[in-house]
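Standup notes
- HV: blocked on the assembly model, inputs below
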Amino acid sequence: MKVYLDNNATTRVDPLVLEAMLPYFCEKFGNAASRSHSFGWEAEEAVKIGRQQVAELIGAAADDIVFTSGATEGNNIAIKGVAAMYADKGRHIITQATEHKAVIDPGKYLEQHGYRVTFLPVDHYGRIDLQQLADAIKDDTILVSVMHGNNEIGTLQPIAEIGKLCKARGVLFHTDCCQTFGKVPINVQEMGIDLLTCSAHKIHGPKGIGALYVRRKRPRVRCEPVLHGGGHERGMRSGTLNVPGIVGLGRAAELCRLHMDTEPVRLAGLRDRLWRGLSSQLDHLTLNGHPTERTPSNLNASFAYVEGESLMMGISEIAVSSGSACTSASLEPSYVLKALGVGDDLAHSSIRFSVGRFNTEPEIDYTIDRVVAAVRKLRAMSPLYEMAQEGIDPHKVEWARR
Amino acid sequence: MAYGDKILDHYQNPRNVGTLDRNNENVGTGIVGAPECGDVLKLQILVDENENIVDAKFKTFGCGSAIASSSLATEWVKGRTLDNALQIKNTDIVRELALPPVKIHCSVLAEDAIRAAVADLKAKRDAKRNGQPATVEAK
């Protein structure tokens, strides 16, 4: 059985989303900016609906939404664009250690260009400390960027409290919501959010399209664009609109909103079933991330004494991902797990399972059986497991490194 | 990058997984790598009175390529003399398993493990010659 449990990486497009998109390739293919003919008008109408559908999911107004090519672009606009626009007000930005690279790398870029960037540490569960954030905010701080749900470990940050703090201190608050948009209730007004990034392909929409919410009132937020050109999207994102993509993103958002009362619960049920099945049959198994404050679809666990890539090879018909160095091109273990203080050996032994709309209970049960069998086989082959069985703590051994 | 057939084969049909008694004076044990690097290879060899390697066992914590490299190493050392076993080069392993560039270090570890096992055995021989009890070393 082929099973897809890597929904945090990307998701299968929902057939309903594809169906909504198709007319906009060969029939209603106009450029939404063509004001003078019906091809343009019908494209513009579709964009208007898509904007509304995205806005409704986060309690925003349609005009607050800027369409992008995805979350990476959205994060770049939010961080670099705000930094440039508010440079006269201040040059200090605060973010945290477990952000996605699409936030961290713009931060590092800004450090090279005259900005100070604070990367807040996280606790063992991956959460920032609100007092540390409050202490880090200075007179020249212009932006705080903290993701809602972490893509690797699923941990949720307290964004409503962060938004409240930022409002009180007069600092803009951006949050990358890729992993929570459509799965966890979000309201930009109630949570004091000024900028928000989301992406279609994490919610069973197409790749290559996302949205950036940019607050227009109280306060009116402005960003310098990353792409200059025809001035589309209130000057913040030039470029012909990807109408089929926008239709897809909108429909995907709408489907999430319609099922918000039932789907997250169903996802958490599958995820918890997987955890119960694994933890009841395997020892030396640890959960990475917060036990309760986590996205409903995410399970990240370390299987001690077994390396992640070999485990993935052992269950190769099941798609998952790992924080092991062996699976990264750079041969570095996951920086997110490092930030948690998990320990490199457990980072190498980590697997991320992420469930989605099309996963079923039989798939979860099959996965449990295959993972348990592979872990047992690999532990029988593991010198570290052997040492642990003999009562030797591998952490206390002096290893001769290469 | 799909897993190579030979690498999968070593995982699905492992040869020589196991443990020899490291206190046996005819057993050499080599342990290389470190858990925090994500690779730990233990390779053991058993020699007869003529210093021919008659048995070899391995255990590995590492990716599929590391497992395959160490598994292959145990296959290759069997039947060789100690000095002959030192002739095995990591490049031979890379070629046999068709390891991609990013996994070449796994073959280097396997070669190092062979060397460490041979060195351990030689150290035991020296200790015995000098009248010392054979000590068990973790390398």
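- HV (later): unblocked. The first helix of chain A runs from residue 15 to 21. The mean pLDDT of chain A is 96.
- Next: hand off to the docking folks.
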